Amino acid sequence: MRTAEDDVCRTVVAAVAAALDVRPMQLDTTLYEAIDPDALQRLVPCDGPSAAGVTVTFTWAGCTVTVEGSGRVVVGRLASE
Predict the structure, then answer these.
(1) How far is CA 49 from the centre of its chain?
(2) Cα-atom radius of gyration of the chain, to the nearest Å?
């Protein structure tokens, strides 16, 4: 769950890094290469109720990322080819 001090983009970066077992600065690509971070922040703001029912799903860094309006971020690794 995010707090007011922690924006959705930082939460996504931390969750993807954790799923890949690397530090955030070790990710091969930036979040900007997968999704517009400003748009994501507008869709899923930290203040909760205004984002109720919103779900955003995208792929990044070999993962599927789902961000729910509740603040929940779910990361799943994509199958290797």
Answers:
(1) 18
(2) 12
Expressed in angstroms, the distance from the first to the final Cα of the chain is 32
Distance between CA atoms of residues 9 and 36, nearest Å? 10
Q: Is the model's pLDDT at 6 over the cut of 80?
A: no
pLDDT (0 to 100) of residue 19: 96
Q: Any idea of the CA torsion for 60, 61, 65, 71, to the nearest 10 degrees?
A: -100
Cα(53)–Cα(44) distance, integer angstroms: 10
DSSP letter for each residue of the chain? ---TTS-HHHHHHHHHHHHHTS-GGG-SS-GGGTS-HHHHHHHS-TTSGGGTT-EEEEEETTEEEEEETTS-EEEEEPPP-
Cβ atoms of residues 19 and 25 within 8 Å: no
